[in-house]
Design a protein that fits this description.
Elements: E1 8-12, H1 13-24, E2 38-44, E3 47-53, E4 57-63, E5 66-70, E6 72-77, H2 78-87, E7 92-98, E8 101-105, E9 110-114, E10 133-136, H3 137-145, E11 162-168, E12 171-177, E13 181-188, E14 201-206, H4 207-216, E15 223-228, E16 232-236, E17 240-245, E18 264-269, H5 270-280, E19 291-296, E20 299-306, E21 310-316, E22 319-321, E23 325-329, H6 331-339, E24 345-350, E25 357-361, E26 365-369
Antiparallel strand pairs: 1-5, 1-7, 2-3, 2-6, 3-4, 4-17, 7-8, 8-9, 10-15, 11-12, 11-14, 12-13, 13-26, 15-16, 16-17, 18-22, 18-24, 19-20, 19-23, 20-21, 24-25, 25-26
Helix pairs in contact: 1-2, 3-4, 5-6
Length: 375
Amino acid sequence: MVTLRKMKVICNRGALLEGLNVASSVVMGRTPKPVLQCVKVSARDNQLTLWATDLELSLVYRDNQVEISEPGEILVQADKFRDIVRESIDDTLSIELSGEVAELKGQDSLFKIPTQPVDTFPSIGGEAVEPDFEIQGGLLKKLSAQTVFAAATASTRYAFNGVLAVANGKSILMVSTDGHRLAQSKGDLSKPAKNTEKEGIRAIIPTKAMTLIDRLIVNPEEPIGFHITSSQAVISTPQATLTTSLVDGQFPPFEDVIPRDTDRQMKAATADFLSAVRRASLVTTEESKGVRLKFGKSGLVISSQSPSAGESKVDFPCKYEGPDFEIGFNPLYLTDGLKAVNDDEVSLEMTAANRPGLIKGGSDFLYVIMPVNLQ
């Protein structure tokens, strides 16, 4: 590849900063390979393109709000470049390559930052590919918000470190679990999946990639394309292309975890139930991290106690069907699930004190939570 050592462009500062913020979340903070802390900036064909990678996740971000006097490309340290653009007070900035130094000029400022050889940057994708299916941006943000939080952060069971996406026909299902809780959300595709397998197109997408996809969605009406291979997913928005390695491993048979024959059910306003759980959990500690839910004819009593922090009791009126019953939950997991509900009313279904509870919010979201033993 021929390395161009000239470049001169004028950029809209706000648009450039948006791209650099996303790119900086891709690059590695600590690495023995300094090139992985850099962003490649390419200016040609009336477009500024930002390239970033950590070798597992790669981003190509396109910015059309530029004027290019001299096409070219540079490789610069991502965080330092972003910080300069962020702190600038100008509406536009000029970027010019002078020898081995990139000059960023504002109305009253000049910054000179060293560049690296562009040919040392890894070769990453970014080419247009035909998507296997498309989903509306706003719906994808909803599915992501209702699942990413329940994925494991560092599990030895690698399949837990991501979100399972299953696209089949006109529908898509997303599922995550960390072994203590499971979140599932579903919706309709704007472009049906071209699957040949009966079980649909399946991929475990890393949590980092899912979070980044959410940040790339600007317009809730815009289509987001997914192209899935055996080892990678290529996600395309009108402004960016994200390529990620898939999580290796077999996702557990999540359908078997979802309670089926529940005989105890509570219904309540989502916001009110969330508030009651939060208040009751104020005296929980690391040693006694649990809230007790006691159901009866008069409703629900939520309580907790800790030798060092004290006791709490919240009387919560609700609709309850079933015999008198007590069960304990980790309040953090319980509130996480309630915050993910997008419906005004939520239901909590149970079978026994040592069996998982099932939270349902609307027709498209469910959340399974394991109980805790309260002495």
